[in-house]
Design a protein that fits this description.
The structure holds two protein chains of two kinds. By secondary structure, chain A is α/β, with parallel strands linked by helices. Among the domains of chain A are: 255 residues, 3-Layer(aba) Sandwich (Rossmann fold); 71 residues, no CATH class. In chain A, the strands form three sheets. Chain A has a six-stranded parallel beta sheet, with helices on both faces. In chain A, strands 8-5-6-9 form a four-stranded mixed beta sheet. In chain A, a hairpin with a 4-residue loop joins strand 5 and strand 6. The model of chain A has no long low-confidence stretch (mean pLDDT 93). Chain B is of the alpha/beta class. Chain B has one domain: Rossmann fold, CATH 3.40.50. Chain B is built from four helices and twelve strands; from the N terminus they run H-H-E-H-E-E-E-E-E-E-E-H-E-E-E-E. The N and C termini of chain B lie far apart (42 Å). The mean pLDDT of chain B is 94. Classes of the chains: A alpha/beta, B alpha/beta. At the A-B interface, helix 2, helix 3, helix 4, helix 8 and helix 10 of A face helix 1, helix 4, strand 9 and strand 10 of B. The structure holds iron/sulfur cluster (SF4). Iron/sulfur cluster (SF4) binds next to helix 15 of chain A.
Chain lengths: 466, 190
């Protein structure tokens, strides 16, 4: 997927003015935030589980190479073919090669964010292979030629009416307006594709080193179809998704659906290992797993390693005041919200996403809800520092910071400036003590007033009252 | 690394009450499965027939071979033991075990337990023996390792209620790609 994160501010402005989107985002906030809170209250030892989950992810990342090798060994022993892809382009190439080798005409896809990173659908189309998204949300987006705006609820930005219009136009069936009828229609349209597809493409929420299995969580059942019916199954996943044991999976699964959608468990958890046995009546004959690096190893051992713990639950965006205001498209790549503000710069280049580490109030809601305790605000702060060090910030900001530093290193001068500044702002505030328009800060006061200080610095007050 | 894998240490476990079967039932109902209970296996066809009639569903089903010998005819149900196809409307399966903590069925694939039977039909009926209800996922994995010593079966599927989607306007709708209904029949005696 093309990175358009450099247009964050412009997009954010558009999105703030879009009443339909604002309505949808308020609803999302209500449902997911409330749902998570309720489901977490049901665990009497939530914080213990959360600490254990973070430790599981850290353990896997500390010995990532060993766990991946163990996974490969176990998977290969069961007839799975394991591929390693260093770049996003390589992923598309490998999938197309597998498709050609098995004479694949049609592929059904269950949701995979990594395949979005790789723009896989375009590559498959270019190779003459029809790829059909089957997660309802992703299917709607494919029909509408739009990117997802949330990692768990990809069409949160679309209303039921828009979906009705789209289905009527694309399916050429009488217009349906009820959500249940729309879902049934999608089921009816997609079912024949499941039954005739040669290849199923899925992501993986986790891969298990102990057993060589891949695991996906779904609610719709499309993931089960894609991993059961076609004769070839390809699972594409980031190398960081490995967990050591099935016990570790159990711990993580107590947090993932709760944090994501406020469910105690998803409808389906599908753990697939190897290929169809000789006497089995169903299951794929060929199973390929593609382990994707695409920038991930760069994070290992860096100050950003903690980000690799992410289990893609989306809680950070559901709770983020910035995401709640502008939605996912403003972020300009696959991953929105706080996790995207960290992942996009590190995967797609800091220079391509200058605004993202700043698209945060650093209120730490995300850090508080993250089930694997990723300190997202700290990571965003690190990226801001890196931007400054690499001279990627505008000259005015650099100049202002340099001036501030000059003063801050000279306490007497700093105190003097403070005294002058406080009095000046107090005058500016007038009787109402509100500053309507701040000199050099008109942007800040465009949408709100700044409360004026009362006319003396803290130190002055302190000495006076002592 | 190998040591950690071999230890298979469980994480912190949430409490499951003293009666796993009751807990299972409560959780399963909360996730929109329905639950019935019968004394023993021979009463399953009667329960199935009553359920299908209650929901005005056709009295024809595809089932796992383990149920082929039951007296379906006596209750007017036509049942065939095989993998499911696109036209089957009712699928009857057993379960490897069931998990009380979340009200979940654990299905494993194999020559006599085809995965499609619980997936393609609009109605999935699962017959589970009460003695196979375990407390949590960890206990299910332990059982899996003892009874499938040759490694993880090709597909281990955890099913917690009928398929659903909330993609359009965050409105939960039952019956997405998988079954619209999951009906669990618990058997109390061997
Ligand atoms: S950063 Fe944390 S909260 Fe955000 S998606 Fe990843 S795991 Fe979930």
């Amino acid at each position: 997927m093309l990175v358009t994160s450099s247009r964050f501010k412009e997009r954010a402005r558009e999105k703030l003015a879009d009443p339909n989107l604002q309505h949808a985002l308020r609803k999302l906030q209500g449902n997911f935030v409330r749902g998570r809170a309720e489901r977490i209250r049901e665990l009497d030892n939530f914080e213990d589980i959360r600490a254990a989950a973070a430790a599981i992810r850290d353990r896997a990342l500390a010995d990532l190479d060993l766990y991946l090798e163990r996974f490969e060994r176990e998977a290969t022993a069961r007839g799975t073919v394991v591929h390693w892809a260093e770049t996003r382009d390589e992923v598309s190439r490998i999938v197309c090669d597998i498709a050609r080798a098995h004479n694949v005409r049609k592929a059904v896809k269950s949701k995979s964010m990594v395949s979005e990173e790789c723009a896989l659908n375009e590559a498959l189309a270019a190779a003459g292979i029809e790829a059909i998204e089957t997660d309802l949300g992703e299917y709607i987006l494919q029909l509408a030629h739009e990117p997802p705006s949330h990692i768990v609820a990809p069409v949160v930005h679309k209303s039921r009416d828009e979906v009705s219009d789209l289905f009527e136009q694309k399916h050429r069936r009488p217009r349906k307006s009820g959500i249940a009828e729309l879902c049934r229609e999608a089921r009816e349209v997609l079912r024949p594709h499941f039954l005739t597809a040669d290849m199923g493409i899925s992501g993986a929420n986790f891969i298990v080193a102990e057993t060589g299995s891949t695991l996906i969580v779904t609610n719709e059942g499309n993931g089960r179809m894609a991993t059961t019916l076609p004769r070839v199954h390809v699972a594409i996943t980031g190398i960081e998704k490995v967990v050591p044991t099935l016990e570790d999976v159990a711990t993580l699964l107590r947090l993932l659906p709760r944090s994501a959608t406020g469910q105690s468990i998803t409808n389906y958890v599908s753990i697939t290992t190897g290929v169809k046995g000789r006497e089995d009546l169903d299951g794929p004959e060929h199973f390929h797993v593609i382990l994707v690096d695409a920038g991930r190893t760069r994070l290992l051992g860096s100050g950003m390693q903690e980000m690799l713990r992410c289990i893609r639950c989306g809680a950070c965006m559901n709770h983020c005041p910035v995401y709640q205001s502008v939605g996912g498209h403003a972020y300009g790549w696959v991953y929105p919200g706080p996790m995207g503000s960290v992942l996009t710069p590190v995967y797609a280049g800091l220079e391509n996403a200058l605004d993202l580490p700043h698209a945060s109030t650093l209120c730490n809601q995300c850090g508080v809800v993250c089930p694997v305790k990723i300190p997202l605000p700290d990571l965003m702060r690190k990226l801001r520092e890196e931007q400054f060090a690499r001279r990627l910030r505008p000259w005015r900001e650099r100049l202002a910071l340099a001036a501030w530093r000059y003063a801050a290193e000279r306490p007497a001068l700093y105190a003097l400036l403070e005294r002058v500044g406080v009095r000046f702002l107090a005058r500016l505030g007038g009787k109402k003590r509100r500053i309507r328009r701040l000199p050099f800060g008109a942007g800040w006061t465009a949408g709100r007033d700044l409360p004026a200080p009362q006319g003396a610095t803290f130190k002055e007050l302190y000495w006076r009252r002592r | 690394m190998e040591g950690h894998i071999a230890a298979r240490a469980p994480g912190p476990l949430p409490r499951v009450g003293d009666d796993p079967a009751a807990h299972f039932r409560e959780r399963a109902l909360a996730l929109a499965s329905t639950v019935d209970e019968v004394g023993s296996l021979e009463y399953v066809p009667r329960a199935v027939s009553a359920y299908l009639n209650r929901h005005s569903l056709p009295l024809a089903a595809v089932c796992w071979p383990q149920f082929a010998a039951l007296d379906w005819n006596a209750h007017g149900v036509r049942s065939e033991a095989r993998a499911a196809t696109a036209t089957d409307l009712v699928g009857i399966t057993g379960a490897f075990c069931a998990i009380a903590e979340t009200g979940t069925l654990v299905l494993v694939s194999g020559p006599r337990t085809p995965a499609t039977v619980s997936l393609l039909p609009e109605t999935h009926i699962a017959v589970v023996h009460v003695s196979r209800i375990v407390r949590n996922m960890e206990a299910a994995w332990a059982l899996l390792r003892t009874e499938h010593s040759g490694g993880c079966p090709r597909a281990v599927t955890l099913v917690s209620g009928p398929s659903r989607t909330a993609d359009v306007e965050q409105t939960v709708t039952l019956g997405a790609h998988g079954p619209y209904r999951v009906h669990i029949i618990l058997i109390w005696r061997a």
